[in-house]
Specification:
Elements (H helix, E strand, L loop, with lengths): L3 H18 L37 H4 L15 H9 L13 E2 L2 E2 L11 H5 L27 E2 L9 E2 L20 E6 L2 E5 L3 E2 L3 E3 L5 E5 L2 E4 L13 E4 L4 E4 L8 E4 L4 E5 L6 E5 L19 E4 L21 E2 L7 E2 L9 E9 L3 E4 L2 E3 L2 E4 L6 E8 L6 E4 L5 E7 L6 E4 L3 E10 L12 E3 L12 E10 L11 E3 L4 E10 L5 E3 L26 E8 L4
Parallel strand pairs: 3-4, 6-9, 7-10, 8-11, 9-12, 10-13, 11-14, 12-15, 13-16, 14-19, 15-19, 16-22, 19-23, 22-24, 23-25, 24-26, 25-27, 26-28, 27-29, 28-30, 29-31, 30-32, 31-33
Antiparallel strand pairs: 1-2, 5-6, 17-18, 20-21
Length: 539
């Protein structure tokens, strides 16, 4: 083996001979010493800085101050509104970041420390305790799965598209319409069974493969019995999985109205929801994600109390306070029975509704006129209404698991002395935006600040997702008219401010909506917020 010394000497000699042959007379030698080596050290790993802390919002960025009726002395300032929220417990007013996948929180960890709604709201018979804020506990919460439909406004686990043709089934060409309906021929391959204009005796609509039920114009269940009359005995019963569609060839406003004293019993299941929709929805690509306003929605009229009275009712007239419902002529709601029942709606979708008859006279997805606490409404979705998702005029009906997706105006609109509770509710605005005056919830008394019953509501486990589109929404929550409200375990996401509290009357400590409790006026005091996560200004 050649030694290292010899290999080095041999290589050096060879190199010198090679250079000489190329014309090099002298060869430089490094001489004595060592050869310097440059070592590039790797950059040190940065020290973690932790989660960034956002700059706190100003009061004006958090809440909008509004002058009502020109009364600048009644204005609830942005600072006062923020102070009301900060007076509660466990609220987060500077939320930010990518915390939501649509309406679902991306983590199973609650965004704010939850409060016990039963303790805060004081209703153990309807409100249940939870350990999370918002309507959904995390990304795998399946409470809204299957019975809902999906759109760009909100996507739910295991649910199908709202624009998809509902599951009606095959066999329409040979199907027979049930007693009480009229065969209206085939639409595509489906048998259309027409409902009567006025349903004067109880009618059942079974699920029949290949059959849908058509309603045309103003379809009325029962005759009005007045605010104190006995039940009419007329009930419209709808089986799970049934599809009802408005007549797209009819120029009149299609709607279903249940009169005082009559009932609807529309009880679907999570796997077979009942679907009210437009006939265009029965054709592939007949509707889209922006479709709305094809029919007038569902109206339930009850005999519970309400605050705004028509001439000749209320007071000393001997007739309980009653009023005409929006969107139709001569249909009255109101009475003296707060336990009244207009029936049950469970596992129901109401698609592509909403018609503006005139300013302040609209048809919503679902309208409740003084329905009582005996009315059961849960697991209901109102999708793409051209007006409100649901509007409640007086009464005492509670809501649970109610979803409003893509409404063009407000998600939940309550006024005229509604007194009730809602839990597990969602309002998600469509990505194309809504009207310039749309709110996730609008809480009001129609300008009658101290009429009784006073509007009084309690929201628990709510998720309100406002989006900036063609029109930027002014806020997520509007509370005005002297209404009494409490909010617990909620999530509010808004591209602008989150809250807009308005007083229209009074000055100083006597301003309506935020004044101290006064039992003579049925007023329980300023609004309260506990365990509400606010993510405002699109942060």
């Amino acid at each position: 083996m050649l030694s290292f010394t010899r290999r080095h000497s041999l290589l050096a000699t060879t190199a010198c001979l090679f250079l000489a042959s190329c014309g090099a007379d002298d060869v430089a030698s490094p001489g004595a010493g060592s050869i310097g080596v440059v070592i590039n050290q790797p950059a040190p790993t940065p020290t973690p800085t932790g989660t960034a802390t956002p700059t706190p919002l100003t009061a004006a960025q958090f809440a909008t101050a509004t002058t009502a009726n020109g009364a600048t002395s009644s204005v609830v300032t942005s600072d006062e509104q923020l102070a009301l929220v900060n007076a509660g417990s466990n609220n987060v007013v500077n939320g930010f970041g990518a915390n939501f996948n649509g309406v679902y929180p991306v983590s199973g960890t609650s965004l704010a420390t939850a409060s016990n709604p039963q303790t805060v709201l004081g209703n153990t018979s309807f409100i249940q305790n939870t350990s999370f804020v918002g309507a959904l506990s995390g990304p795998n919460d399946n409470a809204f799965s299957g019975w809902t439909c999906n759109s760009t406004a909100a996507t739910f686990l295991n649910s199908t598209s709202c624009a998809a043709v509902p599951s009606i089934g095959s066999g329409g060409s040979t199907a027979t319409c049930p007693t009480g309906t009229t065969d209206a021929g085939l639409v595509q391959t489906f048998r259309a069974c027409l409902l009567p204009k006025t349903i004067t005796s109880s009618l059942s609509l079974p699920k029949i493969a290949g059959v849908f039920y058509r309603f045309s114009g103003e379809t009325v269940v029962g005759n009005d019995v007045g605010g104190t009359g006995a039940d009419s005995g007329v009930t419209l019963t709808i089986a799970p999985g049934v599809v009802l569609a408005a007549d797209s060839s009819n120029a009149d406003n299609d709607l279903i109205l249940v009169n005082r004293g009559s009932k609807i019993n529309a009880v679907g299941t999570a796997d077979a929801p009942i679907i009210f929709t437009a006939q265009q929805n029965l054709t592939a690509n007949g509707v889209s994600d922006v479709t709305q306003g094809f029919w007038g929605g569902i109206i339930l009229l009850g005999r519970a109390t309400t605050a705004i009275c028509a001439t000749g009712s209320g007071g000393s007239t001997g007739i309980p306070c009653q009023q005409q419902i929006e969107g139709v002529t001569g249909r009255l709601y109101g009475g003296s029975n707060d336990a009244d029942s207009s029936g049950t709606m469970q596992y129901v979708q109401i698609r592509f509704t909403g018609i503006a008859i005139s300013e302040g006279n609209e048809l919503q997805g679902l309208t409740l006129g003084a329905t009582g606490s005996g009315t059961v409404i849960d697991h209901v979705q109102s999708h793409n209404s051209a007006d409100d998702g649901i509007e409640i005029f007086g009464g005492t009906t509670n809501l649970k698991y109610f979803v409003v997706t893509g409404a063009d105006d407000d998600g939940f609109d309550v006024d005229n002395g509604w007194r009730g509770y809602m839990q597990f509710i969602i309002a998600a605005q469509k990505t194309s935006g809504a009207t310039a005056d749309s709110f996730a919830t609008e809480i009001d008394s129609n300008g009658a600040e101290d009429l009784l019953p006073r509007t009084y509501g309690r929201y628990a486990n709510f998720t309100f997702i406002q989006r900036a589109g063609t029109n930027t929404p002014p806020s997520a929550i509007r509370l005005r008219g002297g209404a009494d409200f409490a909010f617990v375990n909620g999530v509010v996401v808004s591209p602008t401010t989150c809250v807009n509290i308005i007083a229209s009357e009074g000055t100083g400590a006597d301003r309506t909506t935020i004044r101290a409790a006064n039992s003579a006026l049925q007023d329980v005091g300023p609004p309260t917020f506990n365990s509400v996560y606010f993510q405002c200004q699109g942060r």
